[in-house]
Write a structure and sequence with these properties.
15 helices, transmembrane helix, single chain, membrane, DUF2157 domain-containing protein, transmembrane, mainly alpha
Length: 387
C-alpha cells in the first residue's frame, strides 16, 4: 500500500527525533552523526527556497506533460474533454510514483504532481457529474485519504480535512432548510468524533510516519469545533445559506447557546492544554479567545475602542505578571523555565535588546591606551630619562 520504503520512513522519523534531541542538548553532535550514519533514510530538503524552486519547476513540468498530450490529441480532445481530464489526473499520480521510485522525494517536486493529481481527479468528477458539489467533495475526500495512506504527504491530509468537512456540509444541503439549520450542530459532532478517533490514533498508531498526519487532523478538528459554534460564524453563514438578512436588533435561534459556546470553548482549550501540557492546543485556545473578543466586540460595542484596548492590555499584563510570579520557580509541570526543545536564544537576545533600549543599559568596556606611560617611554613624563 505504501509507495515508499517503510523502513526508510520510520528511520526518517527517528532522525527527526534525534535532531530534536540534539537541539535540546540531550545528545552531542557526534552522537547525532553516528545515528545518521547507521540509519538508512531519505534526506528531506528543509530549505524553503529550494522547495519553492522545485515546486515551480514541478508546475512547469506537469503543465508541459499535459500540454504535450493535448498537442498529440488535438483532433479528438474537443469531443472527449472529460476523458482527458482523467488522463491529466492520472499523469499526476504517475509522476508521483516515478519520482518516489527514483528516490526523488521530500524535495517539493513530487508534491506538485500529487496535488495536481488529486485536484484534477476531483475536477474530472465535477465535469462528469455536471458540477455536483457532493460528488466532488466525496471524491476529493476518498482520493486524499488513500493518497495519504500511500504517499504519506501532509498536503493530502489538508485536502482531506477541507473535503471531508465539505462532504458533511453538502450532504446536509441536500436536506434543504432543515439541513442548513442543523449544520453547526452536525459539524460539532463530526469534529468531536474525528478528534477522539485521532486522539486514540496518536496513542496506538502502528506506523510512526503516520503520526504527523493524525496530529494535524486532530488540531484541525479543534479549530472546526470552535468555528462551528462561534456566534459570528453561525450568524453570517445563516444569512448566506438561508438567504435572509437578520436585523441588528434580532438574534438567531439559540443565540444564548452560541454566545455561551463562543466564550466557554476557548477557556476550556486553554485550561485543558495547560493541564495536559499540549502546546498546540494552547495556541489554538489563545487564537480562539482572541476571535471571541472580536465576536463580542463586533456585535456589542460597550466601550470605545481606545478604552477597550487599554483595559485589554492591562488585563493581559496582569495575567502575564502573576503567571510569571507563580511559575518562575517551578521546575516540573507547567513552568516558566525555557523549553529545551525550542531554541530560546532569539528570545534572550530580544530581552537584552529591550532592556538596553528602555533602561539605557550599556555593556561595560575598558579602553586601554596603546601608549604606555611612565619610565620615560615614547609618551614621556618618566623619571628614567629615556625618550
Amino acid at each position: 500500500m505504501i509507495a515508499q520504503d517503510k523502513t526508510k520512513l520510520e528511520n526518517q522519523f527517528l532522525i527527526e527525533e534525534a535532531h530534536s534531541l540534539h537541539d535540546a542538548k540531550f545528545i552531542s553532535k557526534e552522537q547525532l552523526k553516528e545515528i545518521e550514519t547507521r540509519l538508512n533514510y531519505t534526506k528531506a530538503n528543509t530549505n524553503i527556497f529550494l522547495r519553492f524552486g522545485f515546486a515551480v519547476l514541478g508546475i512547469f513540468l506537469y503543465a508541459s506533460i499535459c500540454g504535450f498530450i493535448s498537442l498529440l490529441s488535438m483532433n479528438i480532445i474537443d469531443h472527449n474533454f472529460e476523458a482527458f481530464i482523467f488522463i491529466y489526473a492520472a499523469m499526476g499520480f504517475a509522476g508521483t510514483e516515478f519520482l518516489i521510485h527514483q528516490n526523488n522525494t521530500e524535495k517539493g517536486l513530487d508534491d506538485v504532481f500529487l496535488i495536481g493529481g488529486q485536484l484534477l481527479f476531483a475536477v474530472a468528477i465535477g465535469v462528469a457529474t455536471e458540477a455536483n458539489e457532493l460528488s466532488i467533495a466525496i471524491t476529493a475526500t476518498l482520493i486524499s485519504f488513500f493518497s495519504y495512506l500511500r504517499y504519506v504527504k501532509l498536503v493530502s491530509v489538508l485536502i482531506f480535512c477541507i473535503a471531508s468537512t465539505a462532504t458533511v456540509a453538502f450532504g446536509l444541503f441536500e436536506l434543504g432548510s432543515i439541513g442548513k439549520t442543523i449544520l453547526p450542530f452536525v459539524l460539532m459532532i463530526y469534529a468531536l468524533g474525528i478528534y477522539f478517533l485521532t486522539k486514540k490514533g496518536t496513542q496506538k498508531v502502528q506506523f510512526l510516519f503516520y503520526h504527523k498526519g493524525i496530529l494535524f487532523l486532530k488540531n484541525f478538528c479543534l479549530l472546526l469545533f470552535y468555528c462551528s459554534g462561534n456566534y459570528l460564524v453561525v450568524r453570517k453563514l445563516s444569512e448566506v445559506l438561508l438567504e435572509t438578512e437578520i436585523p441588528a436588533n434580532l438574534d438567531i435561534p439559540f443565540a444564548w447557546f452560541f454566545y455561551t459556546f463562543t466564550v466557554i470553548v476557548p477557556l476550556f482549550y486553554i485550561f485543558y492544554a495547560l493541564k495536559m501540557q499540549e502546546r498546540i492546543m494552547l495556541w489554538i485556545g489563545f487564537i480562539s479567545l482572541g476571535f471571541t473578543f472580536y465576536t463580542i466586540r463586533y456585535y456589542h460595542q460597550i466601550l470605545p475602542i481606545e478604552i477597550a484596548l487599554i483595559l485589554g492590555g492591562l488585563l493581559l499584563f496582569a495575567i502575564a505578571y502573576f503567571s510569571i510570579k507563580k511559575l518562575k520557580d517551578r521546575t516540573t509541570g507547567i513552568t516558566f523555565q525555557p523549553d529545551r526543545f525550542i531554541n530560546s536564544s532569539d528570545f534572550i537576545n530580544t530581552e537584552a535588546l529591550i532592556l538596553t533600549s528602555q533602561f539605557g543599559l550599556k555593556p561595560e568596556t575598558t579602553v586601554e591606551s596603546p601608549m604606555e606611560f611612565g619610565g620615560g617611554d615614547f609618551s614621556g613624563g618618566g623619571s628614567s630619562g629615556g625618550f
